Amino acid sequence: MTTLLELFKETSALYGGNATYIEYLYEQFLSNPSTISESWRQRFEKIHSGAPQDTPHSVIVRRFEKMAIAEPGRLAKMQGFTEQSVKKQSAVARLINQYRVKGHQIAANNPLGRSHITPHADLEPEYYGLTEADLDTLFDTGGLCGIDRMPLHQILALLKQTYCGSIGSEYMHIVDADSKWWIKNKLEGAKTDFSSHPEKRIWLLKLLTAAEGLERFLHRKYVGQKRFSLEGAESLILILDELIQRAGENKVQEIVLGMAHRGRLNVLVNILGKSPAVLFGEFEGTHTSMPGAITGDVKYHMGFSSNIATPGGPIHLTLAFNPSHLEIINPVVEGSVKARQDRHGIHGIDAIVPVLIHGDAAFAGQGIVMETLNMSETRAFNTGGTVHIVINNQIGFTTSNPFDARSTLYCTDVANMVQAPVFHVNGDDPEAVAFITQIALDYRMRFHKDVVIDLICYRRLGHNEADEPAATQPMMYKIIQNLATTKQIYAQKLLDDGVINQAFLSTQEQEYLQLLNAGEVVSRPGIENDHYSYSARWEKFHNKDWNSPADTAVSLDRIQFCNQRLQDLPPGFELHPRVAKVMTDRQKMAQGEQDMDWGFAENMAYATLLMDGYDIRLTGQDIGRGTFSHRHAILLNQLTGENYIPLKYLSPEQGRPQIFNSLLSEAGVLGFEYGYSSTLPDKLVIWEAQFGDFANGAQVVIDQFISSGESKWGKLSGLVMLLPHGFEGQGPEHSSARVERFLQLCADQNMQVCTPTTPAQIFHLLRRQLLREYRKPLVVMSPKSLLRHKLAVSKLTDLTNSGFLPVIGELDELDPLAITRVVLCAGKVYYDLLETRRLDKLEHIAIIRIEQLYPFPAQHFKTELDKYPHLKQIIWCQEEPENQGAWFQSKHFFYNHIDRDITISYAGRVASAAPAVGNYKTHLSEQKAVVQTALYGGQ
User: Fold this and answer.
1) In the Enzyme Commission scheme, what number(s) does this protein have (predicted)?
2) For residue range 195-213, what is the model confidence (pLDDT) as tens digits?
3) pLDDT in tens, 105-146
């Protein structure tokens, strides 16, 4: 058999400097011969000619490399070359590789012609010992652009054309060889010949005409009104159109887009097909808000959806609603996409594609970008790759200099963390933009990974239309004010090439303006598709009251069946002793031999919903076990480390459970789950914080989406947030879920805030969330110590004969006529009050629990108070400081439903800047004082 070493002796192309590349080619040949050039395939086939088996090529290559290093003179002599010629060939190989690695840093891809990057010596032939005398010498290229050998001057020309023109490509940092060399072959292979497709070039010009035409029209018609125009970045419209049409060729069925303000109105009109007449009505204040919205929102935050024809069939486009918090839309879009993919089923990642459009400063500066990228390839949050488009205005937000906006070379460098390829493209070269968009979409569809298009452009009018950008960027705007627009540059190119004439250009511009003036749709024709509509799935949940009925009780047989299925483990599955004890106790609970604890009831809620055919999804940083080791929805085999989720194996007809321990992220994960829950109304979607106050890290999601999405956009969500809450001496950061913040956000029945205190209550609360025709976010102040509290238990009959109780009245057998004081409370403090009252035998005091703080259960509350005709005093008792907790946000509800001669007073901790003390002894002293004040204060 001919070995690689013998082939090296015979072939001038094979030298030590190329050994690694040859090894790669040989690996490609072994796996798929059609992926390499014909000349290399013939060489490798010669190796195999008549050979019974392959000699391990890695061994041969290592021998050759060792020889090349140790005895270069002998190797050169063996091959018939001088040592100098071998060094020259090796230098060319290194130069080629360096252009692939760093060519993007000297690319001519800035439409302003400005660059703060100095020339790189290691991209010059002289750096490798090559001289002008070598320019006409033939060298092996290693397959550059499909050509095996060419003169050095031609090699340099091809390298500069491929890697230093209008496109600068970052991809050599990718570890995966297949994806890296796929990109190389695409960049160095045959490119789209736009010159032979005049109709394509005319279409690109038409898109630029539309993008520029809309902005100029609005600028004249609505003088001084902010619209965050696309001027200077009109090629975004080219990217999106190319992306959508090529996605259609790949049989994509849906694209979900997320973007902030810049260019949003242009995308709505010229891509998604929003009626210009509707947009004009929004400018003029005559157009109504979205259905179901109360306050509405500004026009450049609004979402839209439509169906667009493509070569592969219609694609449904959705542009997500977006607040001013820029990149926070990223995880929301990803969550919505994940929900759609799950709904689609098998091959969902090929059918639904996320596209995120960023600003340059925001992409570099906003931490949520990193969180979303970090989620991209995890099991819980993978959506099969996202196409990222960065509108790189080179100015950041307002006055930002790149040196002040980031510490990285590029605004896109954060994407390197997931080894995403990044294509830096000149926005003033439409054909390069279209070409790189094709590669980007193909990469996503082939490898199901993120990819970034960095559209290098500028802002013609600054931050907004009322801005004077020259005040802060005088040098930049001296260039911009003399720069032709992208459309003008491309139109001139087509005029010079004879593709169009001036009359055609004028006609195209006038036709677009005529459509705008008539308020007619100017995008690609939309397709009516009444059958497909996510909004229709939500119609039955609009305009419903929180009192909507729901029968959440479950038969005893169903409870016992579910528990038994949860107990059935695979053969040889060994539980941890503590978990085994939990499972044994649950057997007793199901038989009524032991009162139910929280973990049993919660798992029964999930199991019974799954048996009813509903899907559930739970995520959080320790969701499987539960932060306080109560849930155990994911079991681990102590012998093998393998996990097992019993909720998946209840019955063949059950719903689908998704239970994932998430990465260490709050904003990203909560945003994702909000997006997921706002897309699928019939799935129980739950996010649990390790501690309730960890939700602080996702406050923007809570403020801008969860609490106000319906009011602004008519967007419903049934998301459940489980926030561990309770003052147990664990310090300021592990006590409060900041219930006051949620209550402050409550209005218009926008969400539910509940403080369940028994296992039965959480059982019915979770089931109620799906079973009634009411979809609002549910915030649960969930317990910590109550998970195992001796009094926080329930009977089986509480699951089979009852439902969720918004208010729980006095349960001890007290004489109603003897009650003169009622203590109102919510959460864990109830049990402290109860134990002390029983111990002190205070039979004139009744304790009422408010289990639903909002919407306030007025009728239930009044019914309980009416039981006590001699009531004189009401005390609101809470563990939280007076300026926190529910007191200030709820006391008006109490006053509204009591007689004037009944006094109301507060019992709790004094106002404090921090939620809780750090010293445990001080905590106990304060807790005792809270209870004593509630039971004895004012007497």
Assistant:
1) 1.2.4.2
2) 889 999 999 999 999 999 9
3) 999 999 998 655 567 899 999 999 999 999 999 999 988 888
Domain end marker among 103, 127, 160: 103
CA dihedral angle for residue 625, residue 629, residue 631, residue 635, rounded to 10 degrees: 40
Q: Is the peptide bond before 430 cis (omega within 30 degrees of 0)?
A: no
pLDDT band at 846 (very low <50, low <70, confident <90, very high): very high
In three-state form (DSSP H/G/I as H, E/B as E, the rest C), the secondary structure along 288-313 is CCCCCCCCCCCHHHCCEEEEECCCCC
Q: Tell me whether residue 606 is in a domain.
A: yes
Please tell me whether residues 825 and 779 are part of one structural domain: no
276-284 and 198-221 helices cross at what angle (nearest 10)?
A: 20
Amino acid 219: pLDDT: 87
Query: How many structural domains does the chain have?
Result: 4
Residue 340 CB neighbour total at 10 angstroms: 23
Give the residue numbers spanning the domain of 911.
807-936
As beta bridge partners, residue 782 has 724
150 residue type, one letter: M
Q: Are 891 and 924 in contact (CB under 8 A)?
A: no
Which residues are 254's β-sheet partners? 316, 352
Distance CA 39, CA 28 (A): 14
**Cα separations (Å) of 759 from 425, 755, 795, 900?**
58, 12, 9, 36
814 and 760 share a domain?
A: no
3-state secondary structure 217-230: HHHHHCCCCCCCCC
The pair phi, psi for residue 422, each rounded to 5°, is -125, 125
Q: Which amino acid is at 23?
A: E
- Identify whether residues 783 and 852 lie together within a single domain: no
> What is the arithmetic mean of pLDDT over 309-316?
91
